[in-house]
Every structure is written in C-alpha cells, then in structure tokens.
C-alpha cells in the first residue's frame, strides 16, 4: 500500500472513500475489512432496506435456524436473544428487529471452527417480529420469531 | 477509559465457551435527558475475539444492543491455559481490550 493512498484513506475516513473504493473495484461490498462497520445497513429504517443493503433481498426461510428468546419479555431494555444455525457452511448470523427505529441490531461473522450459535441481549421499543438472517455457503436464509414486550426499551 | 470486561472462557467437550460482559452505556441517540435534549448516541460498533492471534468471532453492532452488552459463543481448538482476547471499539473511537485464560 503506498503512502498517498494511505493518507487518502485516513483523511476521508468515511462512506465517500468507501464508495470510491467500491466503485474502483478495490473493495467490494461484503468484503470490507473486519474493523469496518456497515453504516448503510445500520442506518436504514425498514427491513427490506436492510436486506437490500446487506445484499440479501429474498432470503429463503429455513427451519434450520433457531431463535432462542422469550415469547414475552417484560423489559424491552434487556431482551436475551440467541441464534443457532444448523445450516452447513454458516458464515454469518445477523439479528434484525423489524419495529425498532433501525432494524439491523447485530451481525456476527462466524469463522471456520466457531459454532454458528451466538447469544446477546438487545433493546426493543415495542413488540415485534425478530428475524435471524444467516449466510451459509454464500446464500441467505432467514427465520422469524415474534417477541411481545410489556415495557418498551427505548425512550424510557 | 471504560471499565474492564468480565470474560469467562471454559473448555468443555472439545469446545471453548466464551462469555463476555462489557461495561458500556450503549446510548441510542434517541433518548432525551431531563431537560428534553437528545442524549448523543454512544455505542459499541465492533467486537472482535481472538485466540492465539486467530479471530474466532467478529461482530458489528448497532445501538439496539442492550446496555452493558452480553455476548456468548463457542469455538473449537482451544487448550486450557490459552488466552482469549476480546476487543471492542465504539462510535466515538474509544477502545477496550481484555483477555482471559481458558480453564
């Protein structure tokens, strides 16, 4: 990597430089460095827009993906959610909460040797369908679970 | 500097189970304070876990991950005594790295 490109990267540091790199074919979407953060996908406000931003327009629904979460969560500020994929070749697990202001919540890259089974805790503003999007062998699959919230986790 | 993470890594049945509790506000940027002003967003965006220099999990998070985030996952190939390092970076560029030994 030469010094001027390094400086350009540092100076720009944002979406415009990334866009240029995508345009130039230096980086392709979905192949960014591990430290990157998918601003486009995290900022959009509807589920179809997130799927488009992730390059996963029409994922097949799959019962090999299990969403482990309560049916009813009393406190929307702390909702435990785990996702387990039994799809061979699982590369990533992404969690989407349809009715949150921004549906994209968390995305996990699963390297070879790591179990396709992750757990975390999320905030939910209201009852919503929660989707787990799994990329396996280059294809996208999805599963859904409704979680009811008695007390919202946003705005408080 | 943020408080240290609590990391527990346990070997069982050929797998290493990793549980992490981070100390972070995870402020969404949508909440208002007592005076009605928006509290600026402040949340962890990137999390990486490595074992012997190899990445065993990397994650991108949005502000909807709950305050003081919890993360659990498992990987193959770890031995007792090995170290697992977890690093996060938030939207303000703050970083924190902690390690734990597999037991």
Give a short summary of the structure.
The complex is a heterodimer of chains A (156) and B (103). Chain A has 156 residues and is an alpha+beta fold. Helix content of chain A is 20%, strand content 38%.
Characterize the structure shown.
The complex is a heterodimer of chains A (156) and B (103). Helix content of chain A is 20%, strand content 38%. Chain A is α+β, with helices and mostly antiparallel strands. Chain A is globular. About 6% of the residues of chain A have low confidence. In chain B, the strands form 2 sheets. In chain B, strands 4-3-6-7 form a 4-stranded antiparallel beta sheet, with no helix packed on it. The radius of gyration of chain B is 15 Å and the shape is elongated. The chains are: A alpha+beta (156), B mainly beta (103). The interface between A and B is large, with 38 and 33 residues.
Which properties best describe this structure?
heterodimer; A: alpha+beta; six-stranded mixed β-sheet; 38% strand; B: 103 residues; mainly beta; 7 strands
Set out the fold topology.
The complex is a heterodimer of chains A (156) and B (103).
Chain A lengths: L2 H10 L2 H9 L15 H5 L3 H7 L6 E2 L3 E4 L3 E4 L3 E7 L4 E8 L6 E6 L7 E6 L5 E9 L2 E13 L5
Parallel strand pairs in A: 1-9, 3-9
Antiparallel strand pairs in A: 2-4, 4-7, 5-6, 5-8, 8-9
Chain B lengths: L5 E7 L2 E7 L22 E8 L2 E8 L8 E7 L6 E8 L4 E7 L2
């Amino acid at each position: 990597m030469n010094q001027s490109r390094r400086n350009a990267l540092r100076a720009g540091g944002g979406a415009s430089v990334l866009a240029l790199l995508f345009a130039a074919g230096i980086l392709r979407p979905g192949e960014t460095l591990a430290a990157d953060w998918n601003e486009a996908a995290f900022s959009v406000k509807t589920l179809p827009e997130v799927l488009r931003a992730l390059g996963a327009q029409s994922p097949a629904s799959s019962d090999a993906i299990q969403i482990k979460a309560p049916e009813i969560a009393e406190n929307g500020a702390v909702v435990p959610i785990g996702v387990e994929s039994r799809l061979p070749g699982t590369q990533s697990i992404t969690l989407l909460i349809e009715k949150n202001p921004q549906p994209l919540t968390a995305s996990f890259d699963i390297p070879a040797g790591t179990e396709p089974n992750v757990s975390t805790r999320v905030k939910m503003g209201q009852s919503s369908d929660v989707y787990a999007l799994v990329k396996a062998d280059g294809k996208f699959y999805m599963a859904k679970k409704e979680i009811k919230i008695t007390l919202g986790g946003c705005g408080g | 500097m943020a408080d240290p993470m609590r990391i527990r890594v346990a070997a069982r049945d050929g797998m290493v189970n990793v549980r992490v509790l981070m100390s972070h506000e995870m402020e969404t940027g949508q909440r208002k304070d007592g005076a009605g002003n928006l509290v600026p967003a402040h949340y962890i965006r990137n999390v990486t876990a490595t074992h012997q220099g190899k990445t065993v999990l990397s994650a991108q998070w949005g502000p909807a991950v709950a305050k003081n985030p919890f993360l659990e996952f498992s990987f193959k190939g770890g031995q007792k005594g090995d170290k697992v390092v977890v690093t996060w970076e938030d939207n303000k560029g703050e970083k924190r790295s902690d390690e734990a030994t597999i037991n």
